[in-house]
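Contributing new complexes? Match this layout with zinc ion.
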Amino acid sequence: MERRNTIQKALILRAVCELKRHLTADEVYEFVKKDHPSIGKGTVYRNLAILTEEGAIRKVEVPDGSDRFDFTLKNHYHVRCVKCGEVFDVDMDEIPDLQKKIHDTHGMEFLTYDIFFKGICPECRAQEKEDKR
Ligand SMILES: [Zn+2]
Ligand SMILES: [Zn+2]
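Output block (do not edit by hand):
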């Protein structure tokens, strides 16, 4: 039983890392199921929670959307396409002293953040152009 659990966990971790996207739990499930039809949804959800707890992946809470699972572990910003809902990493340095400022201004112990910008992704923009023709 122990060994089976380890294998399932590795499969789920691989799915998140290989697809290089910000997947919802359902998307991870659909991906793993293709090669392993016997895997249960509960197993996938449970392992995602364990992997997040262990710090192997990162859970990103999306405003007005399903949680996503991220392979990039360091703090970073996201931009979400308002058309298709896809989440992308923003390749930019953190706001300097962000954590210190939050602490000093508000006396909060800083833990983490989920910062989302909104936009329209290149694919959706191309689609919009098509539609306007
Ligand atoms: Zn889009
Ligand atoms: Zn990310």
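Reviewers usually confirm one structural detail per submission. For this one: The chain is about 45% helix and 15% strand.
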